[in-house]
Write a structure and sequence with these properties.
The protein is an alpha/beta fold and 285 residues long. It contains 10 helices and 8 strands. 34% of the residues lie in helices and 13% in strands. The strands form 2 sheets. The chain has a 6-stranded mixed sheet. Strand 6 and strand 7 form a beta hairpin. Helix 2 packs across helix 6. The radius of gyration is 19 Å and the shape is elongated.
């Protein structure tokens, strides 16, 4: 579905909770937002979050906004509020080797589907960030800049980013040469220099051109299509100044689609690490 259902109209000044209010007026009470973190990184997992917020004032999350517009401390505070106040929430992690096997687009779509499916309360309608996702089993709408204009998507983006950032901090302890705790797997000057000096580690995504070159694997443009040269720049956030769209590391476009059997086993649902402890990595509540 690419339009809101009949009876649902969102005014431009409706605010962050306008989509949910409009959908509830149209009879949709259980509205899930879903978003991912880490698609443009060349190292570390892809993480998807999904959230259903309660209706009315009881469902409003203090400080909620697009995760990229929040400071790290603010994201942690909002994360705690979402986990405590959401009617249902879930997080799914797809490891870097699975991202390599499936390709980023297939892995991304599969993660979003799994996050919605893991919700303890089944959604009646799903809002996605930027592009439509089929296979959700319920109607949905792709919302342009959804993590900035729809509360449930913003909540999902915070769940995904905080979970992934915590994972990258843990991975930094295992692979200190790459400074994952700082750039979270995105390609920065320091990350590029570490790749050149040390080559890729098991957490790097070998589908990405800059990683393959660092590994000494020749990129044959006649066999594998390349979008453009990788750019250097960390994922945007308010700590770095004005928000600018993240330029992804370059991924090699998949030449052979995965089979149905591969998709069935494509995502591992595992425990999600928290500060100092290990919790559920495919977690829901």
């Amino acid at each position: 579905m690419t339009r809101l259902p009949p009876g649902a109209t969102v005014r431009r000044d409706a605010g962050l909770y306008g989509y949910e209010r409009a959908l509830r007026r149209a009879g949709m009470d259980l509205i899930a937002g879903v978003d991912e973190a880490g698609r443009g990184a060349c190292a570390g997992p892809l993480v998807a979050g999904a959230a259903i917020l309660k209706p009315g004032k009881s469902g409003e999350i203090p400080g909620l906004a697009d995760s990229k517009l929040l400071t790290e401390k603010a994201r942690e505070r909002v994360y705690a509020h979402v986990v405590k106040k959401a009617l249902a929430w879930a997080v799914v992690v797809i490891e870097s080797d699975e991202c390599d096997r499936l390709g980023m687009h297939v892995a991304n779509v599969e993660a979003l589907r799994r996050a919605v499916a893991l919700l303890d309360v089944p959604a009646e309608y799903v809002l996605t960030d930027g592009f439509p996702v089929d296979g959700l089993g319920v109607p949905g709408l792709a919302v342009w800049k959804g993590d900035r204009v729809a509360a449930c998507i913003s909540a999902a983006s915070v769940l995904a980013k905080v979970t992934r950032d915590r994972i990258m901090v843990d991975l930094d302890r295992e692979h200190p040469a790459y400074d994952f705790k700082t750039h979270k797997g995105y390609i920065t000057d320091g990350h590029a220099a570490a790749l050149t000096e040390h080559g890729p580690c098991p957490q790097h995504r070998m589908r990405f051109v800059n990683v393959r070159r660092a590994a000494g694997i020749e990129v044959d443009p006649a066999l594998e299509e390349v979008e453009h040269e990788p750019s250097v720049g960390q994922e945007p956030s308010v700590e770095q100044g004005p928000s600018v769209e993240q330029e992804p590391s370059v991924e090699l476009v998949e030449t052979t689609p995965p089979s149905v059997a591969e998709l069935v086993v494509s995502t591992r649902v595992e425990p999600t690490p928290t500060h100092g402890t290990s919790g559920a990595r495919g977690e829901s509540a």
